[in-house]
């Protein structure tokens, strides 16, 4: 049975959590394939609001198996707290499965993340300071410690001591900090291991067997295409591959299993942290997007920077991810504006760019070329089907489809599960 990937087409916070939750109604397993607790996915069901960070958004659908794949980085304390918080709200977390190959976020990763940012000063990335970058750095330099190491205390201690030899030099000599104690960390982490053990498994095998048995699998990306370490606005990116290709590497399922790639696209665009942002609005319109759209970070509470939809970036995301369809979210927020704008190209130094420029420095000082569309000026948050949408909203959706070259199969008109229109 085929698998579907849900991927953000912007700089994150497109509404992937909500869209995944809606899709998860009809699937058996939902797997996260990259990132860690830098992600914040908000889901609203009735009067209840859930903010998930590491556990896949499918967890709120009874019977769905939430899988945390090998491509993720896992802070075990955060995972245990998240499971406990969900269980306290009567959400069944017994099915959560964690890859034995996933890498652990260690206390020194969090510390070094914060210190590196401080030292970068005005050049800082604006990370979530959750230790994501340093954990992936250790993974790729082959100094990482994996979930499976928690179940071999001798191996765990050996790896930790080897890591701390280097980390403590960095902490003490470079950053003027106190060294960290191996035994205290080992005691803490081995205890997390005991609490997590029943959830740990070979998740690649689990997913492959499920697909073989005809079950439906959904891959839930964190972050977004423009935050991808390879394809994003480097270095203002995260340290993994949120793009659709990351789903196979980060889950251990071959690309032939995937036949649908849904690009979650906010009807405008936002970014948290530093980096270029051609359509950023530093005016009343941007302010309205923040306030009406509730654009405050789920993880860090930071105000998100907002601007008009960038169709150059959307077309790019469509290509990089091989999108088969788009889920267009937060279109209700656009009801606020008389006239809507979509960026269709960039201009810099007399040159027009219809694609993302090869030299990313252009992104810092280009002018967006906007196309204007009429707004609809009425509240659409109560719409129950495409037929309920005013003609101007349907025109806006049709223009997004044209510019992206991909059909819009789902439109979201509010945070609620039921505020979703499909065709
Ligand atoms: P994610 O990281 O991509 O899962 O997105 P976040 O959850 O961080 O941010 C999206 C925010 O918008 C959340 O607060 C959602 O509850 C909310 N949201 C999602 N879809 C819609 C929508 O269609 N309309 C409105 N007004 N809010 C939405
Ligand atoms: P979701 O899944 C928005 C941003 C950070 C920072 C950069 C690197 O909710 O869409 P990191 O801590 O990953 O090293 O930070 O990436 N960032 C996100 N921005 N949504 C996210 O996740 C993000 N995860 C990381 O703000 O600019
Ligand atoms: Mg988010």
Verbal overview:
The chain has 423 residues and is of the alpha/beta class. The protein is 32% helix and 21% strand. It is built from twelve helices and 19 strands. The chain has helices at 16-23, 76-88, 107-120, 132-140, 153-174, 182-196, 203-212, 245-249, 284-293, 311-321, 362-365, 391-404; strands spanning 3-8, 29-32, 41-45, 48-52, 65-68, 73-74, 97-99, 103-104, 200-201, 217-220, 258-266, 268-271, 305-310, 325-329, 339-348, 351-353, 367-374, 408-412, 420-422. The strands form four sheets. It has a ten-stranded mixed sheet, sandwiched between helices. Strands 12, 13, 15, 16 and 17 form a five-stranded mixed sheet that branches. β15 and β16 (351-353) form a beta hairpin. α3 packs across α4 (132-140) and α5 (153-174) crosses α6 (182-196). The two termini are 22 Å apart. The mean pLDDT is 97. The chain binds guanosine-5'-diphosphate, 6-O-phosphoryl inosine monophosphate (IMO) and magnesium ion (MG). Guanosine-5'-diphosphate (GDP) binds at residues 8, 12-18, 40-42, 44, 293-294, 298, 329-330, 332-333, 412-415.
């Amino acid at each position: 049975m085929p698998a579907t990937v849900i991927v953000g087409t912007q700089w994150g916070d497109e509404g992937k959590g909500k869209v995944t939750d809606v899709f998860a109604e009809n699937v058996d397993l939902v797997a996260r394939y990259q990132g860690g607790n830098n992600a914040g996915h908000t889901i609203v069901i009735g009067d209840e609001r859930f903010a998930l960070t590491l556990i896949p958004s499918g967890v709120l659908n009874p019977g769905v198996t939430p899988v945390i794949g090998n491509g993720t980085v896992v802070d075990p304390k955060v995972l245990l707290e998240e499971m406990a918080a969900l269980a306290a709200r009567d959400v069944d977390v017994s099915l959560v499965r964690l890859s034995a190959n996933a890498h652990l976020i260690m206390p020194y990763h969090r510390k070094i993340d914060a210190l590196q940012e401080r030292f970068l000063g005005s050049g800082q990335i604006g990370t979530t300071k959750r230790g994501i970058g340093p954990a992936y750095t250790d993974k790729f330099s082959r100094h990482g410690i994996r979930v499976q190491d928690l179940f071999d205390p001798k191996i765990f201690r050996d790896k930790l001591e080897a890591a701390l030899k280097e980390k403590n030099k960095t902490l003490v000599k470079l950053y003027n900090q106190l060294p960290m104690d191996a035994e205290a960390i080992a005691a803490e982490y081995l205890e997390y291991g005991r609490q997590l053990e029943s959830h740990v498994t070979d998740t690649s095998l689990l997913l492959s067997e499920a697909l073989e048995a005809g079950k439906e699998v959904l891959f839930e990306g964190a972050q977004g295409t423009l935050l991808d370490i390879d394809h994003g606005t480097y270095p203002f990116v995260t340290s993994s591959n949120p793009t659709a290709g990351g789903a196979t590497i980060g889950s251990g399922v071959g690309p032939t299993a995937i036949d649908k790639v849904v690009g979650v696209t906010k009807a405008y665009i936002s970014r948290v942290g530093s980096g270029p942002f051609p359509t950023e609005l530093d005016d009343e319109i941007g302010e309205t997007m923040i306030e009406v759209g509730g654009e405050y970070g789920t993880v860090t509470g930071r105000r998100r920077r907002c601007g008009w939809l960038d169709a150059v970036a959307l077309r790019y995301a469509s290509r990089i991810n091989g999108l088969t369809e788009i889920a267009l979210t937060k279109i209700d927020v656009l009801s606020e504006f008389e006239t809507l704008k979509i960026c269709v190209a960039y201009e810099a130094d007399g040159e027009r760019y219809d694609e993302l420029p090869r030299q990313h420095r252009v992104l810092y000082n280009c002018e967006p070329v906007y196309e204007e569309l009429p707004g609809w000026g009425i509240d659409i948050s109560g719409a129950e089907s495409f037929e309920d949408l005013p003609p101007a909203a349907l025109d806006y959706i049709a223009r997004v489809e044209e510019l992206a070259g991909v059909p819009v199969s789902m439109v979201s008109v509010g945070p609620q599960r039921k505020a979703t229109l499909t065709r």
